[in-house]
């Protein structure tokens, strides 16, 4: 019971997000499913927020964790930049033809 | 300050919702993508500003900025260079990076220096994020290798069996650990789990068949999202939780959609199972009618309404552009050309639409399966290019057929069907196609691109 009392906000938040996510995504037409997927992929790169937060906490002489953190930041950034750029490139092709 | 950060995260979350919402129409989707990207940059910058203090060592800052700069450049390069046919590989690769990031976060956070006296809930969430991240990481890499044709399906009992044992271990070990029955520290335990999860990711994708790849990519995408959400819960960071859950929802939505479109249950896809063909008739025994290029061109020149049903064979032959040329030529003759696209055409959800859009086909000409089926009888000629199982009428009227129950494009209801094929090989499902024997169907053999080019040449003469 303690657990629920402490975390009730998070629980509400998670449930609402699930419903919003399904609601928004089910309206996407099948012609845009590939950009939807690569765009969603880019959004999952928001994990970078966690990596940046973590990187600021690691002691400056803890080289193992600094290396791991650096790789994590590189991977997260790659996910975001690649994801949004490639989605943009695809969507450009769907622009109305003049 | 606190309030500004919170508002910034809220705006970032909203930008993700808007970005996905704008994907509902091709016209606004570009704006949506931009909004989501801006929201993302804002969230990252705010996190930096909020966490930055004078005590942060320079080493950390330098590593961080260098990693961000290299990541951005590499991402831009990769996305500029990719061919549209290679899109599924690239999306898998980016998915692997997201999963890898989640896994590394879990590993670093497990270090006792950072997690000294955390409660059980955070530890469980951390492990959940780490395991899902690691599975998405190696799974996506294997998926990418398979899509690139570098790794073959590897379907033995050993693989399937060990994958199940690993899955069981990953559930049981944390339970045993948290009851205090494993005498090791938290960090070594987490490293061991990450190792198991990475092996599981490989074994989990290996047995899955090439035709089922659209399902797997969607599923892995959703797993990365879930990993992000778990990690977000560890930090209590709302923008990570929301972003992760949206991606998880999108992935699961597409996974189920792909499964329905292939008439396969998710469990069967994951086990790499396929129903064996029971039909005794081999294709050699089928009575088929062949058609020549000039006859095809003639039929097209008299048609008022033409539909093209493209399959991945069209993309393999690199014939999208030639096909679009033919469309333009026919449109000059006051003939309408529609494309009817099956949900699983291509190697990932919606892949065929992207390939055709690249060839400058207007998206209003791209019809979904149901839309096309409703007006099928109005089409004078239907050209099936590089598709097979998705037009097999056996899916509707032969309960013995392995494809029975799969939703199909009812091309046989059109006035005339011309199937362009390289030879009499079977489709992915290895199933006899009843369409070929029907009275209104004829086959045009040859490479799709060459045939289409010849048709164009003939049409110009008529």
TrEMBL record, chain A:
<dbReference type="InterPro" id="IPR024605">
    <property type="entry name" value="NADP_transhyd_a_C"/>
</dbReference>
<keyword id="KW-1133">Transmembrane helix</keyword>
<dbReference type="GO" id="GO:0006740">
    <property type="term" value="P:NADPH regeneration"/>
</dbReference>
<keyword id="KW-0812">Transmembrane</keyword>
<keyword id="KW-1003">Cell membrane</keyword>
<keyword id="KW-1278">Translocase</keyword>
<keyword id="KW-0520">NAD</keyword>
<feature type="transmembrane region" description="Helical">
    <location>
        <begin position="12"/>
        <end position="32"/>
    </location>
</feature>
<dbReference type="GO" id="GO:0008750">
    <property type="term" value="F:proton-translocating NAD(P)+ transhydrogenase activity"/>
</dbReference>
<protein>
    <recommendedName>
        <fullName>proton-translocating NAD(P)(+) transhydrogenase</fullName>
        <ecNumber>7.1.1.1</ecNumber>
    </recommendedName>
</protein>
<comment type="function">
    <text>The transhydrogenation between NADH and NADP is coupled to respiration and ATP hydrolysis and functions as a proton pump across the membrane.</text>
</comment>
<feature type="transmembrane region" description="Helical">
    <location>
        <begin position="38"/>
        <end position="56"/>
    </location>
</feature>
<keyword id="KW-0521">NADP</keyword>
<dbReference type="GO" id="GO:0005886">
    <property type="term" value="C:plasma membrane"/>
</dbReference>
<keyword id="KW-0472">Membrane</keyword>
<feature type="transmembrane region" description="Helical">
    <location>
        <begin position="63"/>
        <end position="86"/>
    </location>
</feature>
<dbReference type="GO" id="GO:0050661">
    <property type="term" value="F:NADP binding"/>
</dbReference>
<keyword id="KW-0997">Cell inner membrane</keyword>
<feature type="domain" description="NAD(P) transhydrogenase alpha subunit C-terminal">
    <location>
        <begin position="11"/>
        <end position="95"/>
    </location>
</feature>
<dbReference type="Pfam" id="PF12769">
    <property type="entry name" value="PNTB_4TM"/>
</dbReference>
UniProtKB/TrEMBL annotation, chain B:
<protein>
    <recommendedName>
        <fullName>NAD(P) transhydrogenase subunit beta</fullName>
        <ecNumber>7.1.1.1</ecNumber>
    </recommendedName>
</protein>
<feature type="transmembrane region" description="Helical">
    <location>
        <begin position="154"/>
        <end position="180"/>
    </location>
</feature>
<dbReference type="InterPro" id="IPR012136">
    <property type="entry name" value="NADH_DH_b"/>
</dbReference>
<keyword id="KW-0472">Membrane</keyword>
<dbReference type="GO" id="GO:0005886">
    <property type="term" value="C:plasma membrane"/>
</dbReference>
<feature type="transmembrane region" description="Helical">
    <location>
        <begin position="241"/>
        <end position="259"/>
    </location>
</feature>
<feature type="transmembrane region" description="Helical">
    <location>
        <begin position="120"/>
        <end position="142"/>
    </location>
</feature>
<feature type="transmembrane region" description="Helical">
    <location>
        <begin position="215"/>
        <end position="235"/>
    </location>
</feature>
<comment type="function">
    <text>The transhydrogenation between NADH and NADP is coupled to respiration and ATP hydrolysis and functions as a proton pump across the membrane.</text>
</comment>
<keyword id="KW-0997">Cell inner membrane</keyword>
<dbReference type="Pfam" id="PF02233">
    <property type="entry name" value="PNTB"/>
</dbReference>
<feature type="transmembrane region" description="Helical">
    <location>
        <begin position="34"/>
        <end position="52"/>
    </location>
</feature>
<keyword id="KW-1003">Cell membrane</keyword>
<keyword id="KW-0812">Transmembrane</keyword>
<feature type="transmembrane region" description="Helical">
    <location>
        <begin position="6"/>
        <end position="22"/>
    </location>
</feature>
<feature type="domain" description="NADP transhydrogenase beta-like">
    <location>
        <begin position="6"/>
        <end position="457"/>
    </location>
</feature>
<keyword id="KW-0521">NADP</keyword>
<comment type="similarity">
    <text>Belongs to the PNT beta subunit family.</text>
</comment>
<dbReference type="GO" id="GO:0050661">
    <property type="term" value="F:NADP binding"/>
</dbReference>
<dbReference type="InterPro" id="IPR034300">
    <property type="entry name" value="PNTB-like"/>
</dbReference>
<dbReference type="GO" id="GO:0008750">
    <property type="term" value="F:proton-translocating NAD(P)+ transhydrogenase activity"/>
</dbReference>
<keyword id="KW-1133">Transmembrane helix</keyword>
């Amino acid at each position: 019971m303690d657990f629920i009392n402490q975390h009730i906000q998070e629980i509400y938040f998670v449930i609402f997000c699930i419903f919003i996510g399904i609601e928004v995504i089910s309206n996407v037409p099948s012609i845009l499913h590939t950009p939807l997927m690569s765009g969603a992929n880019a959004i999952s790169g928001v994990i970078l927020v966690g990596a940046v937060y973590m990187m600021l906490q690691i002691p400056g002489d803890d080289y193992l964790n600094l290396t791991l953190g650096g790789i994590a930041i590189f991977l997260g950034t790659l996910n975001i930049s690649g994801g949004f750029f490639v989605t943009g490139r695809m969507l450009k092709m769907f622009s109305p033809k003049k | 300050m606190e309030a500004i950060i919170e508002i910034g995260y809220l705006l970032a979350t909203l930008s993700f919702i808007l970005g996905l919402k704008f994907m509902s129409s091709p016209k606004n989707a570009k704006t949506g993508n931009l909004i989501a990207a801006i929201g993302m940059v804002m969230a990252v910058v705010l996190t930096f500003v909020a966490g930055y203090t004078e005590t942060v060592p320079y080493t950390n800052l330098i590593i961080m900025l260098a990693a961000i700069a290299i990541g951005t450049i590499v991402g831009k390069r990769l996305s500029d260079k990719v061919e549209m046919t290679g899109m599924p590989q690239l999306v898998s690769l980016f998915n692997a990076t997201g999963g890898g990031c989640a896994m590394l976060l879990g590993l670093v956070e497990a270090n006792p220096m950072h997690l000294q006296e955390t409660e059980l809930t955070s530890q469980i969430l951390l492990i959940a994020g780490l395991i899902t991240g690691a599975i998405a990481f190696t799974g996506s890499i294997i998926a990418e290798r398979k899509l690139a044709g570098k790794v073959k399906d590897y379907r033995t009992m050993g693989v399937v069996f060990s994958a199940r044992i690993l899955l069981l271990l990953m559930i049981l070990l944390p339970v045993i650990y948290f009851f205090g029955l494993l005498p090791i520290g938290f960090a070594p335990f987490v490293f061991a789990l990450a190792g198991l999860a990475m092996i599981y990711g490989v074994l989990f994708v290996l047995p899955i068949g090439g035709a089922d790849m659209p399902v797997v990519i969607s599923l892995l995408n959703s797993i990365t999202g879930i990993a992000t959400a778990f990690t977000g819960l560890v930090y209590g960071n709302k923008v990570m939780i929301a972003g992760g859950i949206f991606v998880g929802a999108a992935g699961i939505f597409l996974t189920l959609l792909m499964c329905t479109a292939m008439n396969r249950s998710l469990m069967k896809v994951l086990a790499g199972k396929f129903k064996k063909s029971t039909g005794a008739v081999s294709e050699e025994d089928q009575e088929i009618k062949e058609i020549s290029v000039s006859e095809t061109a003639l039929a097209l020149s008299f048609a008022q309404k033409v539909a093209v049903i493209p399959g991945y064979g069209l993309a393999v032959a690199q014939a999208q552009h030639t096909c679009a040329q033919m469309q333009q030529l026919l449109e000059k003759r006051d003939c309408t050309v529609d494309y009817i696209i099956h949900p699983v055409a291509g190697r990932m959800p919606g892949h065929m639409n992207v390939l055709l859009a690249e060839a400058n086909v207007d998206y209003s000409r791209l019809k979904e399966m149901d839309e096309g089926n409703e007006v099928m009888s109005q089409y004078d000629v239907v050209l099936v290019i590089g598709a097979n199982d998705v037009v097999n009428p056996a899916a509707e009227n032969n309960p013995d057929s392995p494809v029975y129950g799969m939703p199909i494009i009812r091309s046989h209801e059109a006035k005339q069907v011309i199937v362009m094929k390289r030879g009499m090989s079977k489709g992915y499902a290895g199933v006899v196609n009843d369409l070929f024997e029907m009275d209104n169907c004829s086959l045009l053999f040859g490479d799709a691109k060459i045939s289409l080019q010849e048709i164009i040449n003939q049409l110009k003469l008529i």
